[in-house]
C-alpha cells in the first residue's frame, strides 16, 4: 500500500490520487482521500512523502532485445551523461562494480551531440576513468567508435585498425570491432547481459517494451538467397535464438519488466518461406504476462523485396489475423504502404488487428484519416532526439494527437536513440534534440500530461493490453513508478531538468523490482 503521494493515474479523467492499494499483481483500490486507507494487516506500507507516482511506462517501439545481446558490461547510463566529465563518472561507477579486465561497452543509444563538448571522449579520458578495464564506446549501430589502451591492445591483436588516439572508423572498422567482441561472448555473458538490459529498463521506469527486432545476421540458417541478411552491424538480431535468455528468465519467474515480441521478417522471395513457417508454427498473442508474442514487425519482408512480395506478405499477415507494425520513411513511402493496406483491408479487414505505421515523419492529415478509417494506429518516433536537425521532418506530434487516431510513442531505444523515456518526454515537450537545438515546430509540441499519456495510457492498445496496462486503476496490473521529481509541474522541474528525472522505485506486477534505497537497487 502506497500513500501520501501525488499519483497521476492517467485514467480517462487524468485523476490525481493520494494512495493506491495492491493485492497480488493487481491494483485493488485507488483513493483521493487523505490519510492511510484500510489495508490488510500484513501489507507492506510505503509512505511516498509527497513523491509523484506514474503508471509504468510503455514503449510501443524499441529494441531492447538488440540491447540484451550486446557483448561486455553495457554502460547504459551513458544515455544520461551530458558532458565528458559525467561520462567519465559513469565509467568509474561501472568499473567499481566489476572485476579487473572485464569489458565495459556502450553501443548505440547515445551520441557526442548530447555532451557539452560535442565530441567523442579521447582515449586518455577513457583511460583516466577506467584504467583497469578495456572500454569500447560506439555510436549508433555502425560507429564511429573509440576505445582505451586496454581495448586497443585487444583489437590490434585481432587485426582491427585503431588510430593512435583510440578512434575506430564507422562502418567496416566498427563492425569488425563489434564482431571481435561478440566472438568472445559466452552463454553466461549473454544471460547476464540480457538481465542487465531488463534491469536498466526498470531503473528508468520503463516497465513494458514492445520490441521490434532487428536485421538478420549473415549466418542465419537457410537465409542465403531467400532473406535479406546483414553485414555484421550492431542492429542484428538472430531470428531463431535472440529470445532464448528472455524465455529462460520468464520460465524462472525472473523477468523484472514486461516484453512484447514482434518478429522482424526478411523474406525477399514471393514464396515467403520464413514468414509462412513463422506463422504456421507460432501462436499469436501467446505467452505470459511478462513475455508474450504480440505480432510482426518492424519489417514484414526485406527492404530489397519486390513490391509484389511485400504485398503478399501483408495479405498473409491479415489472413492469419496477426498484429503488424511497419517502419515508414517519408510521406511518399507512407502513402505507398497505406495504399497496399487499403487493398488488403477490402478482403481481410484490419479493423481489429491493431496494425501500426511506425515513425511517420511528416505524415499529413489525409494519410492519418486513411489509416484511421481502417482502425490502424501510428507510433510517434524518437529516432531524431539524438542527432536530428531542423531540416529533417519528424513526427508531427500535435497533428497526430488531434486527428484522434490511436497513437503512442516509440522511442526506438537500444540502437538509434536512448531507451531512457525521460529523454523522449523532454523531446516531445520542447521539440529540442539532445544538443538542446530546436528541431520541431512549436505548434506541434505536447504538454507534459499529453506526452506522458503517449508513454502510458495510449500504449496498451497496440498489443491488446489496454485492459491491463497504461493507467493506475482498480483491476489493472500493478505497474507503477515512483519518481525522483514531479515531472508534471514545470515550476518544480524546468524543461531541461526532465532529462534527469528517474525512478526511485519501480513496481511491476505488484513486486518492487527496483528500489534506489537498496544496495544495487534490487
Q: What's the arrangement of strands in the largest beta sheet?
A: 3-2-7-21-22-23
Q: Write down the Rg.
A: 22 Å
Low-confidence stretches: none
Give the biggest sheet. Answer: 6 strands, mixed
Total of DSSP H or I helical runs spanning 4+ residues = 14
Description:
The chain is of the alpha/beta class and 522 residues long. 27% of the residues lie in helices and 18% in strands. The chain has 14 helices and 23 strands. The strands form six sheets. It has a six-stranded mixed β-sheet, with helices on one face. Helix 9 (307-319) crosses helix 10 (331-347).
Offer a concise description of the structure.
The chain is α/β, with parallel strands linked by helices. The chain is built from 14 helices and 23 strands. The longest helix is centred in the middle third of the chain and has 17 residues.
Characteristics:
522 residues; 14 helices; 27% helix; single chain; 6-stranded mixed beta sheet; 5-stranded mixed beta sheet
